[in-house]
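Progress narrative, Year 2. Work on Glucose-6-phosphate 1-dehydrogenase from Amycolatopsis minnesotensis advanced from sequence curation to structure prediction during this period.
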Amino acid sequence: ESLEPHVFVIFGATGDLARRKLFPGLFRLTRSGMLPGEFRIIGSGRHSPGTDEEFRDRLAESVRKFSGDFDDRAWDEFAKHISFQTSSAENGIELAHAVEAAQKELGGARKLLYLSVPPGSMQPMVRMLGETGLAEDARLILEKPFGRDLESSRTLNAELHKVFDEERLFRIDHFLGKESVQNILALRFANGLFEPVWNRQHISYVQIDVPEEIGIEGRAAFMESTGTFRDMVSTHLFQLLGFLALEPPVHVDADSLRTEKRKLFQAVRPLDPARVVYGQYVGYRDEEGVDDQSTAETFVALEVWVDNWRWKGVPFYLRTGKALAQSRRTITLGFQEPPLKMFDAADGFDGAPNELVFELTDDPKLTIDLRAKRPGPSLRLDHAELHLRFSEAFVNAEPLEAYERLLLDVLRDDQTLFTSAEEVERLWELCTPVLENPPDVLPYWRGGWGPEAAVKLAGERGWRVPEK
Ligand code: BG6
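Result:
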């Protein structure tokens, strides 16, 4: 399919996301011929990074570092289309002119605006987009957090809707752009094997576990104002829960998926602060830019219940945090025991349930944890694992990085993997009890698994990660 000419405007163009993901992603998309043939990219921000030349040179460095297959000639060709124009909530006129000029130069072009700015600037920037005409006929991509509680998300949505129709808004949750996350839908709905057992009759617990080894990596201001609960739980972790738990959609398209996600989140019980554990790693308060009395949480573990027919009584355990022992994105579904106990400890039966495990890493993997007969003269049991490694199953396939995939979807006007205003508000509503009455922040050691209370939260079976 050929896409019409585009002018991309990236707000926050000298920021971390732009450097690590957006420019490398756009570069890779051009290289694989997936961007429109004709385009301009205008980077923007409050402060000028110097001349366009200097801006491009800085970008070249980042793209070289983050995009894998850098090539000077391809870069030069791509970089010709990039320029920089300062802007702020108070002043967007020059940027608006620059965009208009670029549109003219291309003989008419669609506008795609990417707002990657600190949470506090979001609303004033949206207003500016409206006032300067930049918003006209444009699509807008937004980065989370979408507000910081129910009330502010409602205000933000109302402000957005004054300037953009919902169809032109693309709220990014980059986890949904991950190949491995979309695979949850493929596995659930394209295989007769899984769907019949995907319910409370067969599944006894679910874990959504996203520990991270990294600390805050210079993002002190962000962590201090946002915290891990708002950064990760009300966003990525709930979105994973959404894909795992939703009812089969009528079709796999934006409307049907959104309908099912809406129904699902309606059925999620508002969180109980008594079943939420907050942690902060020891040493966090010494990080540069962090208040020495800070109570920001760098770790969260919690229990979630879905009160519908499919999931009634099945606990969902969610966990994520910084400075932990391993970086993982692991989803585990634990199955019920067989109805009769034919084996016991003497046979090597340890009572551990079967588990279906998604590893949502860049090299995604699916594991089924089974019990099987250990070869030998008697019927003794042991654990055995069935593995599917997607990079082996699909040799030579070229996975897209999450942001690449999502940028492409915006260009195709496909909102399937984006979150709606209503959904965002419902998620904040579910979180309200915790935001209003947050649990104490418990200290934990770097390189461990968070506070002891979080280890206990998952019950007798404990967390699957790390595997014993
Ligand atoms: C971001 C969060 O959205 O996701 C970060 O703001 C987090 O705190 C990151 O580290 C994790 O994303 P990924 O794709 O690296 O797993």
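The chain has a mean pLDDT of 96. Residues 220-245 form the longest helix (26 residues).
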